């Protein structure tokens, strides 16, 4: 994975290998293709954003912006850090538009929804 810092955050290479939401459930493919994206805050590492997308994220919102479908999801890293992810599908590749850590209330709501917190 390539990562460079710029004035808007960290520019990295993103993974795909997931099917479009309209095509059925998201599944990680065998050979991912990479697409660039920008992390909202440098405190979110590219690997964390990728983990959150792979760990069965909870879809929160869907909208079309300038003709592009975008989903907002909450996902967790391997260390149970909960991230807000905005992503889209371009040219059959999943592209994370932005990612950031969430607050305590959103984290608790996500963990309850996934049955990880009572």
Number of helical segments with 4 or more residues: 2
Major β-sheet strand ordering? 4-5-6-7
| Largest sheet descriptor | 4 strands, antiparallel
For this structure, the quaternary state is single chain
Order of helices and strands: EEEHEEEEH
The helix fraction, in percent, is 10-25%
Question: How far is the N terminus from the C terminus?
Answer: 36 Å
Strand content: 35-45%
**Anisotropy-based shape:** globular
Q: Would you spell out the secondary-structure blueprint of this structure?
A:
Elements: E1 3-6, E2 9-14, E3 35-39, H1 46-54, E4 58-65, E5 68-76, E6 82-90, E7 93-101, H2 104-113
Antiparallel strand pairs: 1-2, 2-3, 4-5, 5-6, 6-7
Question: How would you describe the overall organization of this protein?
Answer:
This protein has 118 residues and is an alpha+beta fold. It has one domain. Helices cover 16% and strands 42% of the residues. The chain contains 2 helices and 7 strands; from the N terminus they run E-E-E-H-E-E-E-E-H. The strands form 2 sheets. It has a 4-stranded antiparallel sheet. A 3-stranded antiparallel sheet has the order 1-2-3, covered by helices on one side. 29% of the residues are buried.
Provide tags for this entry.
118 residues; alpha+beta; 4-stranded antiparallel β-sheet; 3-stranded antiparallel β-sheet; 2 helices; 16% helix
């Amino acid at each position: 994975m390539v990562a460079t810092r710029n004035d808007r955050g960290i520019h990295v290479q993103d993974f795909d290998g997931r099917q479009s939401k309209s095509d059925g459930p998201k599944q990680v493919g065998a050979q991912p293709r990479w697409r660039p994206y920008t992390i909202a805050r440098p405190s979110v590492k590219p690997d964390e954003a990728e983990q959150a997308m792979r760990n069965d994220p909870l879809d929160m919102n869907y909208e079309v912006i300038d003709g592009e479908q975008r989903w907002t999801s909450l996902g967790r890293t391997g260390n149970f850090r909960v991230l807000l992810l905005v992503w889209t599908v371009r040219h059959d590749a999943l592209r994370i538009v932005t990612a950031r850590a969430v607050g305590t209330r959103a984290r608790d709501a996500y963990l309850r929804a996934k049955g990880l917190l009572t």
